[in-house]
């Protein structure tokens, strides 16, 4: 009977795999608002650990390209052919498996060409590249001023000298955050202003956003931490940051992974949404619901989550604002994972009613094919049709491209 066991077993395995493939193929790739074109438009790699995504035109052809910050893999550049179809250009960045967490793009040396900075966590190997304008780069990582277990990363002109500065949010045993000012006498090099210009907090920072919350023309700093509290630092206009008592009152302990800043209720003020985890792959230690803080004026905020954000149980490692239905109200896209037990989940959508009250509308907005362990999100028009598209990173899964419709 032995000769018959193997064929039957093989047939069963084949049937199972075929059925699994059929189920994967039958998952909806279309909604009224998005079309998932991943399989035809992106390089296919179902083991990608893309924790962050950025869109920018690196070769000056007028089309948005993709840069990926990868955990335990070399960082990547995907070039756009102009129709939203991308080619992986290998060897552009350092061929090393660092624990890269975040990426930001900007012109640091003032030559009109886009540069790239990455930060890493566990192995603390941050990377800095000056763009050549043709999709290639010069590695100048030796210009960075220190190593750290980095997660948060933000760039912006904090001291109003016309040059991009760098803020790095750190975790670990000595997690003081970094503020590196761009050297006006030698653009593209940095001066460490951390100890003199940042409050001396030792937070476990996961996200940093630079945004003017009080309309004084200066970039303030919002800090999302994995251990409460989150923080808001005001800028004195010279790149020195300080807290104001009562500006960001918090009564619910959060494990925050990303901060996004946008005008939720259309009053002309910047509001803040914190995307949160139940835990980093463990048990349910915190409430994972995103929390929305409404600007009361002059950069003072009130937590209005209970009446504005629906309750949900999935965790969120990344979030992005987008007006997906082009009604003038800013909506939210959430990368979602179910924790416990760190289980794949569908990307989620929150619809804004125009007054800053949100409802979950995932089934009608997001294709079912986005089911996975999603991570960093970038928004931009990659196929030049005037409609914003979504590029969604992934942890050990396929990066996805959703074209807006």
Rounded to an integer in angstroms, the radius of gyration calculated over CA atoms is 22 Å
Intertermini distance: 58 Å
Measured as a percent range, the helix fraction is 10-25%
Look at the helices and sheets and give the structural class.
mainly beta
- Low-confidence region ranges: 1-24
Total number of helices: 5
**What is the tally of beta strands?**
29
Strand content: 35-45%
The biggest beta sheet is recorded as: 8 strands, antiparallel
Arithmetic mean of pLDDT: 93
Name the shape in a single word: globular
Please tell me about this protein's structure.
The chain is mainly beta and 405 residues long. Helix content is 10%, strand content 40%. The strands form six sheets. Strands 1, 2, 3, 4, 5, 27, 28 and 29 form an eight-stranded antiparallel sheet that branches. The N terminus is likely disordered. The protein has five helices and 29 strands.
Any key phrases for this structure?
five-stranded antiparallel sheet, mainly beta, 405 residues, 40% strand, disordered N terminus, eight-stranded antiparallel sheet
Write a short abstract of this structure:
The chain is mainly β. It has helices at 2-26, 38-41, 194-197, 305-308, 362-365, and strands spanning 34-36, 48-56, 65-70, 76-80, 86-89, 100-106, 115-120, 127-131, 137-139, 149-156, 165-171, 178-182, 190-192, 205-211, 220-225, 231-235, 241-242, 256-262, 271-276, 291-297, 300-303, 315-322, 331-338, 343-344, 348-352, 358-360, 374-380, 389-397, 400-404.
């Amino acid at each position: 009977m032995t000769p018959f066991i193997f064929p039957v077993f093989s047939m069963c395995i084949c049937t199972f795999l075929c059925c699994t493939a059929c189920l994967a193929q039958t998952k909806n790739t279309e909604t009224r608002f998005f079309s998932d074109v991943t399989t035809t438009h992106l390089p296919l790699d179902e083991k990608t650990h893309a924790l962050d995504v950025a869109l920018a035109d690196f070769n000056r052809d007028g089309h948005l390209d993709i840069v990926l910050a990868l955990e335990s893999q070399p960082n990547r550049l995907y070039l756009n052919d102009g129709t939203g179809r991308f080619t992986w250009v290998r060897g552009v960045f350092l061929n090393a498996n660092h624990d890269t967490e975040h990426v930001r793009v900007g012109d640091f040396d003032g030559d009109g060409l886009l540069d790239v900075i990455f930060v890493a966590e566990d192995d603390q190997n941050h990377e800095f590249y000056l763009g050549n304008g043709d999709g290639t780069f010069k590695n100048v990582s030796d210009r960075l001023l220190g190593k750290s277990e980095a997660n948060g990363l933000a760039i912006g002109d904090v001291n109003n000298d016309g040059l991009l500065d760098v803020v790095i949010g750190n975790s670990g045993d000595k997690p003081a955050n970094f503020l590196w000012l761009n050297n006006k006498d030698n653009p593209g090099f940095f001066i460490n202003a951390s100890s003199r210009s940042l409050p001396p907090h030792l937070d476990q920072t996961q996200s940093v956003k630079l945004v003017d919350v009080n309309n004084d023309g200066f970039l303030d700093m919002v800090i999302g931490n994995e251990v409460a509290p989150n923080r808001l630092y005001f800028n004195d206009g010279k790149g020195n940051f300080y807290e104001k008592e009562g500006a960001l009152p918090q009564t619910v302990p959060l494990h925050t992974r990303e901060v996004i800043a946008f005008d939720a209720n259309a009053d002309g003020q910047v509001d803040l949404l914190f995307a949160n985890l139940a835990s980093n792959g463990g048990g349910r230690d915190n409430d994972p619901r995103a929390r929305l803080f409404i600007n009361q004026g002059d950069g003072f905020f009130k937590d209005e989550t209970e009446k504005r954000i629906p309750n949900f149980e999935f965790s969120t490692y990344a979030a992005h604002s987008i007006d997906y239905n082009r009604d003038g109200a800013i909506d939210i896209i959430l990368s979602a994972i179910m924790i416990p037990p760190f289980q794949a989940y569908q990307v989620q959508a929150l619809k804004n009613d125009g007054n800053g009250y949100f409802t979950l509308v995932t089934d009608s907005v997001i294709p079912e094919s986005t089911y996975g362990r999603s991570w960093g999100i970038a928004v931009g028009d990659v196929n030049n049709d005037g409609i914003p598209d979504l590029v969604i990173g992934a942890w050990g899964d396929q990066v996805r491209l959703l074209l807006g419709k």
